[in-house]
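Need Inhibitor of the KinA pathway to sporulation's 3D structure for a figure. Predict it.
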Amino acid sequence: MSLDTIRAVETLSFPPMRFSDDPEFVVFDTEWTAWEGSMARDWSGPGEYRELVQVGAVKLDALTLEETDRLELMVRPRFNPVLSDYFKDLTGIKQSRVDREGLDLPEALDRFATFMTPEGWGASNGGDDVIMRENAELYGLEFPLANATFTNLRPILVERTGIPRPRLVTGQLDSVLGFTCDLAAHDALADARKLAEALRVLRGRGQI
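Structure prediction for Inhibitor of the KinA pathway to sporulation:
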């Protein structure tokens, strides 16, 4: 997509989106186990699973997009309880914190489901709900949010901003969309808040 096309899209004004029929909805992000090169090989190495380590979520007013509540969960991986150096360097999450604060996956999923409500509406910049479902299956659990609605916001962001999909990763939304944010990247709660702020910025520009 050319720069002129991107600029043309940026000048468009869209009717304000209502993100949920409910009064509130949840924007969330996750961090999961990773190793050097695991993304390139799609976690196909021996013993490589995308086990949840951190879940961050903010509850937003569906009309104003203002934050009304927050949730952060640390999760203790069962198959790979020792975090890789690659993951620790990427996220800044320490092994000691996971050992101290980490919940077993069933409790973490139940807490997230309570926060979101079982038939609520959740949004992420990517398929974070797919990771949650994958974890439930890996652990032989029923997914507690099977009746919830999940939306991947990235296609919407691409359509409304004209910015190519690969550039719209959550950790770079502030630099890509041109707003100031001092929150760390690859921290699930910080990234959820950054995504929420991106929605507010785009709402202010009339793009969502």
